[in-house]
Amino acid sequence: MSSILSQLERLFIQTIPTVIFVFLLYLFLDRFFFRPVTAVLKKRDEETTGAVTQAEKQAVAAEEKARQYEATFQAARQDVYRQRENDRRSILEEREATLKQARSRSEVLVREAQASLAAEVTESKAQLQTSCQSLGQEVADRVLGGAVQQGGGGVQP
Length: 157
Prior knowledge:
By secondary structure, this protein is mainly alpha-helical.
């Protein structure tokens, strides 16, 4: 048994440098490889999460701006419709006023023309009456005067 123990002791002593080497390798790899890689992965994860969060915030802001733009656009459209309606009403009112003015002028012209025509008719009737009387007198003179001349020509010495 003592030989086994002595062999184990020798084997244990021979493994000490290997164990120390493995421990130092572990420390070296931990310090120069695993910690930097872990830090880079952690930083990448934070940046990715941050970028996703930032993108979500920007998407929400873009949606809000789109809603504001749509609301502003709708309000502008309503203003344009109101302005068009006001313009249409004012044009119709101007048109109605112009039509009333034209009707008034035409009624005045018609009344003036009727009055002028009535005056002409009255004047024409008066002239016709005068002409009729003079023509009647002339006809009577010729008819009666011609009979008097024909009958009187034989009677006169």
